[in-house]
Specification:
two-stranded antiparallel sheet
Length: 311
Amino acid sequence: MNFADRVIDVIENKGPLVVGLDPHPEHLPPSLLQRTRGNGDDPLDAFAQAVFAFNRAILDCLRDVVGAVKVQMAFYEMLGPGGMKLLQRTLLEALHLGYLVILDGKRNDISSTAKAYASAYLSYPVLPGNQVVPPQWPCDALTVNPYLGEDGLLPFIEEAHRNEKGLFVLCRTSNPSAPFIQDMGEGETVYQRVATLVDRLGQNLIGRRGFSAIGVVVGATYPRELELLRKKFPYMLFLVPGIGAQEGDMEKLGPAFARKGGGTLVNVSRGIIFAYREGKDLQGENFTGAALERARFYQKRLRQTSQGTLQ
């Protein structure tokens, strides 16, 4: 099935919330770390085992409330080889539980190298002798950087098309210094030009619901830009980070949603998976319960926002 159609199905069946599996080491529940403390010689590998226990518990407790997760690769790469194995296990677990899985790596390079990235994340790698191996980083969609231009994006788009995967291209990012580069340009800014390029390149990947499988990342911290882009591109998928720890305003997200409240996935990471830290359970004995309660809150509020019924 076309990736965009799967996104619309997730939004209709569960809601627009995406939970980010960003395991900040300093925020992991102390009680969990105590229970999973390894006896091996490699502290990074032992810590990776603790992170997987955390991820698996979060995925299991949210499965009836949340339809999509976003896995940020940086937190796994920092743990070395054990962390990369952890990344693979986390992706497989999320897919097994039925989540739509977005891998957040923001990859890209010149076209020949971009082709290798695209093969790694969106396809079945082919070894010499035409030996095809299973995907090592299985996911439904990947975030990519458009800075190298069209020839850097095309290999990803070709693999996404071939394998019914999706892409989210960085467009208007949520960080404070984004305007320094992304607002440059006379008449058409950099972020607007990126969206125009994505719209053109995604025309061959439009699903039966009218949306293309190639979307953009637009931060909740820039609601005016979100509204402008949605008006210009009513059938483009949006991935919206910045709610929660980055202080994006949920009440201003209404214009980001397409007709009938579709087309937009909203990511919340720390505000859900580490919700236990905001209560009295400082050891995180019931971190899953706190995460589930917070996920229900965000899902309900985002549904209301998308339908224009936020109270």
